Amino acid sequence: MTVKTMHTADVKDLLEKVAGFNQEGGNERVKKIVHRLMHDIFQIVEDFDVTAEEFWQAVYYVGDLGKNGEAALLAPGLGMDKYLDIRMDAEDEQAGLAGGTPRTIEGPLYVAGAPMSEGFARMDDGSDESAETMILTGQVTDENGQPVANAVVDVWHANTMGNYSYFDQSQTDYNLRRRIKTDENGRYTARSIIPAGYGCPPEGSTQALLNLLGRHGNRPAHIHFFIAKPGYKHLTTQINLAGDEYTYDDFAFATREELVVEANRIEDPAKAEQFGLNKPFTEVEFNIQLVATDKPELQSRHERKRALEGEAA
Ligand code: DHB
Ligand code: FE
User: Distance from CA of residue 305 to its chain's centroid?
Assistant: First the structure.
């Protein structure tokens, strides 16, 4: 049975009351957005003839999503983070601030306040002896190719199980998380371990919805970056390692062609020794180009909830 009620005065009146249009107080923008949101949900119920059983399943889904802390995981899976990036790219284009290394999504697993060092950092705590050693290095430059010294390169990535310290309590504090200030040549270098890709919790709410969409919940092996320096646009980005099964099939839609990097195995003992290593390692090079801006609001990361932000030094 298909009934149509959206056009009725009863429904129009209900939506206006729901959104507080007949009330003095509150926030006008929120009222308008909630009005549109509820209208569109009502419309979906009508258009798809959503049953009461289906509707309550959706309500319980949202409850579970909150309970297991996956709302910020589902959002990228549904393309929201990527969509916001597309909008920010378009805004940059409009403001004449396009260019430089492309942005991509932050993801929900950043932890503020990682140890800071100058030029070089060791990121892993040495506990995973079977992991492949990674030397991650690059230069930060401006759009003219001039080195940018004293930029803060804030790097975080998963371990060989695809897990992130802090969220994975079995890892030491700030394992695989460091901030490195670029040296006078704009260079940064990290010694770490090659990360594995990430998979959504298999029994979680995000994966449950992805299953209904016939989608997987995997990300390729990747490394996150924030790069900041006064006078330049703050950059949130990631690199995806080439050759991963999911490099071009990321459930969170973060891959961009310019951000896919080769991981090069280095067998030369002389080169290993340069980094104080006595075995072959894998080198990953990521050079970063920043775009100058005098707008202070573009020079820092946008606000959102982040672990330990505001608490850590
Ligand atoms: C997501 C992003 C990540 O970087 C990650 O490691 C896991 C999940 C995400 O966007 O959902
Ligand atoms: Fe990640």
Answer: 13
